[in-house]
């Protein structure tokens, strides 16, 4: 197996494990609820600012404290899985550095040669983003009863 494929496979497996752990540890329904609430508040706040509605801004000020608390809760949810994944990820990165050093393992257009560390980072990011999109689509579809939403 080529070095590029080995590193890509490691990056994929680590990303998959990290995301699976994150989804298992975090109450996804609560996260969605918080995000929706913050989005709703921001929309109302921007509208009140745009219209210079002092009364609405005064009302939103009290609501803002609750939204700030919810934002902190959201950050806590985001950080929780990181506590469990950061050490294994650092170990994997150290192992990749130890085994491949600065060896060029892949060549990309416009960039050229990419060493093992950066190849790991590129593949891990691409994998994580893709898995998050797939998971979000799955949750939306499950939430809608398994049917596609018509636009």
Describe this structure in words.
- This protein has 151 residues and is mainly alpha-helical.
- The chain has one domain.
- It is built from four helices and two strands.
- Helix 1 (3-25) runs parallel beside helix 4.
Short structural description:
The chain has four helices and two strands; from the N terminus they run αααββα. With 151 residues, the protein is mostly helical. α1 (3-25) packs antiparallel against α3, α1 (3-25) packs parallel to α4 and α2 packs across α3.
Topology at a glance:
Elements: H1 3-25, H2 28-50, H3 54-100, E1 104-108, E2 112-115, H4 116-143
Antiparallel strand pairs: 1-2
Q: What's the story with the biggest beta sheet? A: 2 strands, antiparallel
Q: Structurally, how many domains make up the residues? A: 1
How far apart are the first and last residues' alpha carbons, in Å?
A: 45 Å
Mean pLDDT: 90
User: Based on the structure, what is the oligomeric state of the protein chains?
Assistant: single chain
Q: What percent strand?
A: 5-15%
Helix/strand class: mainly alpha
Radius of gyration: 21 Å
Shape annotation: elongated
* Number of H- or I-type helical stretches: 4
Low-confidence stretches: none
Q: Summarize the helix and strand pattern as letters.
A: HHHEEH
Strand order in the sheet with the most strands: 1-2
Total count of strands: 2
Q: Helix amount, in percent? A: over 70%
List keywords for this structure.
151 residues; mainly alpha
